[in-house]
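Here is the promised in-class demo. Please do not try to memorize the tokens; focus on the logic of going from shape to residues.
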């Protein structure tokens, strides 16, 4: 893609950091989870202009199989953290009607434990609806959506937003974007200003939440994806933690074969059992992702649990899966420790073979210590592998306090 422009000049003029050909952009909302290869040809980060706050400005694309060759769908995008939105927003999408159906689709749909369709939202403005399509996750509280789309925001989106502008609010992050690449300073300023306008409204909402998924304790409402998962798990209790995902999945089987839902419920039951055995409490995915927007782990996030190490550090058990293989994934431990301590430990551990199951990889990202190992993925994880990882991780993290 030799014709791709660069944000280097804009970043220098606006006091931003710039990286070329970077993979350092979080897959925070559904647009950035499309395709089998996501690329970031140019990335600027820092305090964005026009009041957009701390975040990323990027030229991004994802690859997909076209009719005769690999094709790419490019965008210019602003991404900012919106941690407070986890209290009311599961996934809210405001897409320009000219956006390709592929770009508007949800790439996470096949990874959901229970598959439920998105909901279309019809706001009371014909002019707005001529320009935009608004939809939400099935579990999204619709009152919060109506609060978000205030009359003033609807008017601004309809009459003043940049041409072909769209935004997605998901997992504690706000992504605002337009199709295609641009390095034009006026257009980039306009996109940053638009992100600031939407973010101001996002930050002003004190919504009623979404079934307590990020609040730890509220019961899920009937008919939601989470309520169906909880009901299935309650109807299939385990006397002890399942020894493997497959063993757990068999308990949810209907008929002779294990269907996708049985596998997904088995994976959930397996993780909950193993996490509890280790003293960790499962937490909502959006809560973890919102608090770790710039923590990069291998694979695609699936589930997380929170706890503390024996030495007292806050830690998160996180499972991630390969997007291509059912028998390939990673078990990760993200530990909140001082940056220098994390860096020192990561540099003291020899780098192992990343292609060998069970080999520990240790890294640091400036805010956390990250331990990862390749495992059997969504269908072949086992308690033996899980226990071996935790034992090795416990030994490694104990060195944080050694003299």
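The designed amino acids, position by position:
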């Amino acid at each position: 893609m030799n014709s791709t422009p660069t944000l280097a000049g804009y970043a220098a003029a606006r006091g931003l950091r710039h990286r070329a050909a970077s993979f350092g952009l979080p897959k925070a909302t559904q647009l950035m989870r499309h395709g089998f290869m996501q690329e970031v040809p140019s990335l600027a980060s820092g305090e964005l202009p026009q009041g957009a706050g701390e975040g990323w400005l990027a030229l991004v694309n994802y690859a997909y199989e076209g009719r005769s060759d690999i094709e790419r769908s490019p965008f210019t995008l602003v991404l900012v953290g919106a941690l407070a939105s986890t209290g009311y927003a599961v996934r809210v999408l405001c897409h320009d009607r000219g956006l390709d159906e592929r770009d508007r689709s949800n790439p996470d749909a096949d990874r959901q434990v229970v598959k439920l369709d998105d909901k279309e939202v019809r706001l009371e403005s014909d002019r707005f609806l001529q320009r935009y399509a608004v939809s939400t996750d099935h579990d999204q509280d619709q009152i919060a959506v109506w609060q978000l789309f205030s009359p003033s925001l609807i008017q601004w989106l309809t009459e003043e937003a940049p041409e072909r502008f769209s935004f997605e609010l998901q997992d504690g992050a706000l992504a605002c974007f337009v199709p295609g690449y641009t390095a034009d300073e006026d257009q980039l300023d306009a996109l940053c200003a638009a992100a600031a306008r939407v973010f101001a409204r996002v930050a002003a909402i004190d919504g009623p939440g979404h079934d307590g998924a990020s609040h730890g304790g509220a019961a899920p409402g009937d008919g939601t994806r989470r309520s169906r998962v909880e009901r299935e798990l309650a109807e299939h209790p385990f006397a002890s933690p399942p020894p493997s995902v497959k063993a757990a999945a068999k308990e949810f089987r209907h008929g002779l074969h294990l269907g996708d839902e049985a596998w997904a419920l088995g994976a959930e039951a397996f993780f909950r059992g193993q996490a509890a055995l280790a003293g960790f409490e499962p937490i909502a995915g959006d809560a973890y992702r919102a608090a770790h927007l710039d923590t990069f782990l291998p694979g695609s996030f699936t589930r997380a649990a929170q706890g503390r190490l024996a030495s007292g550090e806050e830690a998160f058990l996180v499972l991630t899966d390969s997007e291509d293989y059912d028998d390939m994934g990673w078990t990760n431990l993200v530990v909140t420790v001082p940056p220098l301590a994390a860096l020192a430990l990561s540099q003291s551990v020899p780098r192992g073979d990343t292609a060998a199951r069970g080999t520990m990889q240790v890294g640091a990202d400036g805010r956390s210590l990250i331990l990862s190992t390749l495992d059997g993925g969504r269908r072949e994880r086992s308690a033996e592998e899980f226990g071996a990882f935790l034992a090795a991780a416990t030994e490694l993290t104990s060195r944080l306090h050694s003299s």
